[in-house]
């Protein structure tokens, strides 16, 4: 539709100009990707996952490495020096130009995926002002998503490209083209393994709704309708993609090394800046109990480990009062948290919509309970939720809470004074748009947010002012330099938890629909 | 969607565009000993903060007028003083007398850029928003589109936030003046325009239309009675505003004279740099400079400008084209009224605005602003063509040629537009990429200014035709624009 394509073009211009004006070479991710270009170009395949000249070792699955190899062929024409592994922190203008261009170009995948998602949205009857059409609102929510703009274009990653695959795969499932969706997801998983978060949703959904071609009248499994052909097709797709990606490494017997690079559990429960999940709340509880214990003379201060959980380097640490958390514990918690969602789409599938909801819950569950989660992972939940938000009022309310807190939790990623106006203005733009557009879409059905939720969101403004303006000018700046990070992650964690619970409620308490025949 | 949310989103987008350009280089960056306009503004902060008011415009041991002496009216000086006051609280090194010459740092750049943004937010942007919402007609979506394109005009953004100046303040005040006149508040309008004049003397470009309109209005309401009363009120307001701004300098006549001498340096030549001016273009054919002497230049200019009394664009364009000592940045003064025409004549207005940005290309290249120039121009063209459907408005009656239609029917409008855009793109690329032959070192700037001049001349003629071919009933409405 015309306005969506205009939104698409406008977003292209916006992205290009953001890249061009704000992109700075000082982000570590920039050096990470330059290093990977160098490794894949200059070294033989057998050394890719062993190379550690730079601290930024290759820790994405092999398909991404092949992708970087392809990019490096183009990079050669820009500046061959960036492809020397020894040139650490090399950032000539040509290098910067090439890297930024590569992000812009690969963003095409994302724009195409957004268009496909817009085509899946049901348009309500009756002529509507262009700006209030659900497909237009969805287009803007996806293409101008604050989190994606910040993470990709100001910070530097290829998330637009990767999320394009995710959204495209979701769109294909919504359009009932399951094999294509499975293929896209297989690619995605081999590009960045963080999408394992949502793999259970795919697995169970495809098994239940695709391999079992029909359901009983009451929605339960009809074992007799099992189609081995479909299962075989799925299996073939997944195995061939994995073979394409991991094949050479399995042949060389390097699989354990690759896996150890992909899953570095040594890295600590939390990232240097705590992602707003359960463990942030857990850490804070632990810290406050420790402080309380020392005050009440129940604990000896000397017994406590040094307070460095929000230190700049990632490292392992122990909790002082509450039991320490190990990777195994987080895995169990994660699995427990997603179990009800997965079970729900097995027992009572709600078609592709139910799948999308389960995907969101898996993403959020892993975000909440996972080991060493990045705050950027919240985008895996926010972007697909946009699709649900333009169609249902309840989801729009959850979306507003999750998006606003999730996006605000990304603020510490941009910490220089020059970026302060940018992040504030972009955030304001996106927030104003999402609130007014979604309210207009669902205006007939009452207000989107409960007053308490509104108060919580307004509290975010207070936190923002406190952290960005008041704190740097206050005396605590020296003594407790990580206080604003702590406050941000704890406050946002509450919002994210709340959104998680509400999404669960909406899945489990949903009235049953007739499951679709596939 | 509600208008207020659309307006806020557009304003926020405009702020992002401005801040984006801010992060680029500025005039004279890293170029001792004189640096550029950025250093000039910083120096004025230093001078106004540290020296007593009596010394600001005089050549003293502490104040070397050859190193960026103050050459704007007092309001600029007061503004610099306020900025200096804030600068002092953040980092006194920025405005230390003598020692801070050529001071450059990322922090300081942020601070300076912030001052421009704050001034814009307080003065220019509200004026634009209010003008577009209250003085343009059409649906609210159309008004917001016009406002958005107005705010995205690349020339002003690049000069203010790139090269570094405070044109937003003076243009903003002028716009407040126009807004007030449009709403019928003549006294406030004249006060606002006097403030604009006291900020930058170049606002004299807009003075004639203001003066003619107000005088005309007074005459119409009857010179005996209400009209006279209005005239007196306006006169008193203007005099009071001027007196207030010049108060510290009125104690001694020599003070005031010195300020005037600094503001109007008639000792300088006919044109500086390669400006898209008639004289400049003519100069390539005839060496005018060598033929006429300084004084006669001045009278020639004045004679050419007087007939164009009514239409603001025409008058400011006329001044630009035929004036004395014109900087290429002065085209901004003609651009402001052109922005006001985005509603009525979208194609011509955006064509002119793009040409005006293009005319300043050599300046942008000197400042290292090529990339922002490209991005903002593309953005402006895209949004104005898409939002204002400008390309649809090229039929004869839309262009309002009226009776002169028969004279120009043979001109293929749309083709001309595309050709001109192509020419601008081509010349931009050439100026940026190619090296001129050694015996013609200024080839590209001259080509740029000649092309721009042709555009301006064409627009000038077109707007004149439009103005004179209108039926009289519309003319009185137009006068209030």
From TrEMBL, chain A:
<keyword id="KW-0812">Transmembrane</keyword>
<feature type="transmembrane region" description="Helical">
    <location>
        <begin position="231"/>
        <end position="251"/>
    </location>
</feature>
<feature type="transmembrane region" description="Helical">
    <location>
        <begin position="130"/>
        <end position="151"/>
    </location>
</feature>
<comment type="similarity">
    <text>Belongs to the ALG6/ALG8 glucosyltransferase family.</text>
</comment>
<dbReference type="GO" id="GO:0006487">
    <property type="term" value="P:protein N-linked glycosylation"/>
</dbReference>
<keyword id="KW-0256">Endoplasmic reticulum</keyword>
<protein>
    <recommendedName>
        <fullName>Alpha-1,3-glucosyltransferase</fullName>
        <ecNumber>2.4.1.-</ecNumber>
    </recommendedName>
</protein>
<dbReference type="GO" id="GO:0005789">
    <property type="term" value="C:endoplasmic reticulum membrane"/>
</dbReference>
<keyword id="KW-1133">Transmembrane helix</keyword>
<keyword id="KW-0328">Glycosyltransferase</keyword>
<dbReference type="InterPro" id="IPR004856">
    <property type="entry name" value="Glyco_trans_ALG6/ALG8"/>
</dbReference>
<keyword id="KW-0472">Membrane</keyword>
<feature type="transmembrane region" description="Helical">
    <location>
        <begin position="424"/>
        <end position="442"/>
    </location>
</feature>
<feature type="transmembrane region" description="Helical">
    <location>
        <begin position="454"/>
        <end position="474"/>
    </location>
</feature>
<feature type="transmembrane region" description="Helical">
    <location>
        <begin position="194"/>
        <end position="211"/>
    </location>
</feature>
<dbReference type="Pfam" id="PF03155">
    <property type="entry name" value="Alg6_Alg8"/>
</dbReference>
<feature type="transmembrane region" description="Helical">
    <location>
        <begin position="354"/>
        <end position="371"/>
    </location>
</feature>
<keyword id="KW-0808">Transferase</keyword>
<dbReference type="GO" id="GO:0042283">
    <property type="term" value="F:dolichyl pyrophosphate Glc1Man9GlcNAc2 alpha-1,3-glucosyltransferase activity"/>
</dbReference>
<comment type="pathway">
    <text>Protein modification; protein glycosylation.</text>
</comment>
<feature type="transmembrane region" description="Helical">
    <location>
        <begin position="480"/>
        <end position="501"/>
    </location>
</feature>
<feature type="transmembrane region" description="Helical">
    <location>
        <begin position="328"/>
        <end position="347"/>
    </location>
</feature>
From TrEMBL, chain B:
<feature type="transmembrane region" description="Helical">
    <location>
        <begin position="373"/>
        <end position="391"/>
    </location>
</feature>
<dbReference type="InterPro" id="IPR004856">
    <property type="entry name" value="Glyco_trans_ALG6/ALG8"/>
</dbReference>
<feature type="transmembrane region" description="Helical">
    <location>
        <begin position="173"/>
        <end position="197"/>
    </location>
</feature>
<protein>
    <recommendedName>
        <fullName>Alpha-1,3-glucosyltransferase</fullName>
        <ecNumber>2.4.1.-</ecNumber>
    </recommendedName>
</protein>
<dbReference type="GO" id="GO:0005789">
    <property type="term" value="C:endoplasmic reticulum membrane"/>
</dbReference>
<keyword id="KW-0732">Signal</keyword>
<keyword id="KW-0812">Transmembrane</keyword>
<feature type="transmembrane region" description="Helical">
    <location>
        <begin position="331"/>
        <end position="353"/>
    </location>
</feature>
<comment type="function">
    <text>Dolichyl pyrophosphate Man9GlcNAc2 alpha-1,3-glucosyltransferase that operates in the biosynthetic pathway of dolichol-linked oligosaccharides, the glycan precursors employed in protein asparagine (N)-glycosylation. The assembly of dolichol-linked oligosaccharides begins on the cytosolic side of the endoplasmic reticulum membrane and finishes in its lumen. The sequential addition of sugars to dolichol pyrophosphate produces dolichol-linked oligosaccharides containing fourteen sugars, including two GlcNAcs, nine mannoses and three glucoses.</text>
</comment>
<feature type="transmembrane region" description="Helical">
    <location>
        <begin position="416"/>
        <end position="437"/>
    </location>
</feature>
<keyword id="KW-0256">Endoplasmic reticulum</keyword>
<keyword id="KW-0328">Glycosyltransferase</keyword>
<keyword id="KW-0472">Membrane</keyword>
<comment type="pathway">
    <text>Protein modification; protein glycosylation.</text>
</comment>
<feature type="transmembrane region" description="Helical">
    <location>
        <begin position="230"/>
        <end position="251"/>
    </location>
</feature>
<keyword id="KW-0808">Transferase</keyword>
<dbReference type="GO" id="GO:0042281">
    <property type="term" value="F:dolichyl pyrophosphate Man9GlcNAc2 alpha-1,3-glucosyltransferase activity"/>
</dbReference>
<feature type="transmembrane region" description="Helical">
    <location>
        <begin position="443"/>
        <end position="466"/>
    </location>
</feature>
<feature type="transmembrane region" description="Helical">
    <location>
        <begin position="144"/>
        <end position="161"/>
    </location>
</feature>
<keyword id="KW-1133">Transmembrane helix</keyword>
<dbReference type="Pfam" id="PF03155">
    <property type="entry name" value="Alg6_Alg8"/>
</dbReference>
<feature type="signal peptide">
    <location>
        <begin position="1"/>
        <end position="22"/>
    </location>
</feature>
């Amino acid at each position: 539709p015309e306005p969506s394509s205009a939104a698409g073009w406008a977003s292209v211009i916006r992205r290009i100009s953001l890249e061009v004006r704000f992109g700075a070479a000082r982000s570590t991710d920039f050096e990470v990707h330059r290093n990977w270009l160098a490794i894949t170009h200059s070294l033989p395949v057998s050394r890719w996952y062993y190379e550690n000249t730079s601290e930024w070792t290759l820790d994405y699955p092999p398909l991404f490495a092949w992708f970087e190899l392809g990019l490096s062929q183009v990079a050669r024409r820009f500046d061959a020096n960036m492809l020397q592994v020894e040139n650490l922190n090399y950032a000539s203008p040509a290098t910067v130009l090439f890297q930024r261009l590569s992000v812009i170009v690969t963003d095409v995948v994302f724009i195409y995926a957004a268009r496909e998602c817009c085509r899946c949205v049901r348009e309500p009857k009756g002529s509507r002002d262009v700006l209030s059409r659900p497909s237009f609102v969805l287009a803007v929510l996806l293409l101008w998503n604050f989190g994606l703009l910040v993470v990709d274009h100001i910070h530097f990653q290829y998330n637009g490209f990767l999320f394009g695959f995710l959204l495209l795969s979701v769109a294909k499932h919504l359009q009932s083209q399951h094999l294509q969706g499975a293929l896209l997801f297989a690619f995605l998983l081999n590009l960045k393994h963080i999408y394992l978060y949502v793999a259970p949703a795919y697995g169970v959904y495809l098994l239940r709704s695709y391999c079992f071609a029909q359901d009983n009248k009451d929605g339960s499994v009809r074992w007799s309708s099992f189609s081995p052909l479909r299962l075989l097709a799925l299996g073939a797709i997944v195995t061939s993609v994995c073979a394409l990606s991991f094949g050479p490494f399995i042949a060389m017997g390097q699989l354990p090394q690759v896996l150890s690079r992909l899953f570095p559990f040594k890295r600590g429960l939390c990232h240097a800046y705590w992602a707003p999940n359960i463990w942030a709340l857990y850490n804070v509880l632990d810290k406050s109990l420790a402080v309380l214990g020392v005050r009440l003379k129940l604990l000896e201060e000397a017994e406590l480990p040094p307070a460095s959980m929000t230190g700049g380097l990632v490292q392992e640490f122990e909790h002082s009062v509450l039991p320490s958390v190990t990777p195994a514990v987080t895995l169990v918690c994660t699995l427990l948290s997603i179990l009800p969602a997965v079970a729900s789409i097995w027992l009572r599938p709600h078609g592709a919509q139910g799948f999308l909801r389960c995907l969101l819950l898996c993403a959020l569950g892993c975000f909440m309970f996972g080991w060493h989660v990045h705050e950027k992972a919240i985008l895996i939940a926010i972007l697909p939720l946009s699709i649900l938000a333009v169609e249902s009022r309840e989801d729009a309310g959850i979306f507003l809470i999750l998006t606003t807190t999730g996006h605000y939790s990304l603020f510490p990623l941009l910490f220089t004074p020059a970026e302060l106006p940018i992040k504030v203005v972009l955030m304001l733009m996106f927030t104003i748009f999402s609130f007014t557009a979604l309210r207009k879409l669902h205006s007939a059905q009452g207000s989107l947010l409960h007053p308490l939720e509104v108060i919580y969101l307004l509290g975010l403004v207070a936190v923002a002012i406190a952290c960005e303006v008041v704190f740097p000018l206050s005396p605590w700046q020296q003594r407790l330099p990580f206080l604003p990070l702590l406050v941000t992650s704890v406050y946002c964690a509450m919002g994210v938890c709340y959104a998680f619970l509400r999404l669960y409620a909406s899945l489990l308490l949903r009235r049953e629909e007739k499951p679709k025949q596939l | 969607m509600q208008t207020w949310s659309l307006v806020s989103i557009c304003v926020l987008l405009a702020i992002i565009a401005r801040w984006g350009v801010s992060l680029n280089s500025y005039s004279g960056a890293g170029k001792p000993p004189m640096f550029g306009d950025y250093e000039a503004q910083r120096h004025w902060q230093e001078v106004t903060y540290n020296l007593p008011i009596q010394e600001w415009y005089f050549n003293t041991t502490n104040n070397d007028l050859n190193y960026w002496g103050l050459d704007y009216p007092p309001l600029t000086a007061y503004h610099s003083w306020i900025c200096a006051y804030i600068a002092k609280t953040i980092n006194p090194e920025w405005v230390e007398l003598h020692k801070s010459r050529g001071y450059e740092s990322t922090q300081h750049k942020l601070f300076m850029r912030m001052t421009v943004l704050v001034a814009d937010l307080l003065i220019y942007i509200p004026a634009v928003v209010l003008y577009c919402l209250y003085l343009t007609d059409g649906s609210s979506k159309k008004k917001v589109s016009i406002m958005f394109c107005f705010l995205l005009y690349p020339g002003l953004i690049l000069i203010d936030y790139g090269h570094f100046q405070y044109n937003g303040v003076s243009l903003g005040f002028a716009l407040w003046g126009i807004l007030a006149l449009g709403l019928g508040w003549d006294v406030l309008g004249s006060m606002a325009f006097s403030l604009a004049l006291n900020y930058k003397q170049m606002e004299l470009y807009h003075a004639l239309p203001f003066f003619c309109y107000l005088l005309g209005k007074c005459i119409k309401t009857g010179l005996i009675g209400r009209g006279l009363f209005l005239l007196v009120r306006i006169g008193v307001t203007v005099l009071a505003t001027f007196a207030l701004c010049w108060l510290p300098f009125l104690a001694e006549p020599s003070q005031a004279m010195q300020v005037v001498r600094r503001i109007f340096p008639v000792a300088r030549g006919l044109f500086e740099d390669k400006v898209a001016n008639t004289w400049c273009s003519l100069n390539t054919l005839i060496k005018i400079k060598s033929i006429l002497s300084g004084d006669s230049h001045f009278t020639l200019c004045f004679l050419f400008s007087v007939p164009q009394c009514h239409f603001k664009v025409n008058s400011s364009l006329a001044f630009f084209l035929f004036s004395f000592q014109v900087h290429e940045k002065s085209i901004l003064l003609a651009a402001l009224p052109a922005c006001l025409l985005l509603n009525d004549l979208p194609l011509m207005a955006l064509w002119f605005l793009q040409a005006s940005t293009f005319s300043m290309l050599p300046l942008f290249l000197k400042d290292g602003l090529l990339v922002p120039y490209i991005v903002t121009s593309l953005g402006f063209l895209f949004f104005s063509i898409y939002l204002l459907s400008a390309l649809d408005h090229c039929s004869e009656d839309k262009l309002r040629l009226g009776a002169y239609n028969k004279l120009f029917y043979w001109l293929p409008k749309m083709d001309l537009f595309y050709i001109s855009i192509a020419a601008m793109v081509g010349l931009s690329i050439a100026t940026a990429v190619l090296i001129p032959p050694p015996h013609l070192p200024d080839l590209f700037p001259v080509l740029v200014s000649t092309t721009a001049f042709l555009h301006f001349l064409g627009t000038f003629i077109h707007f004149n035709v439009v103005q004179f071919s209108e039926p009289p009933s519309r003319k009185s409405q137009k006068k209030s624009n």
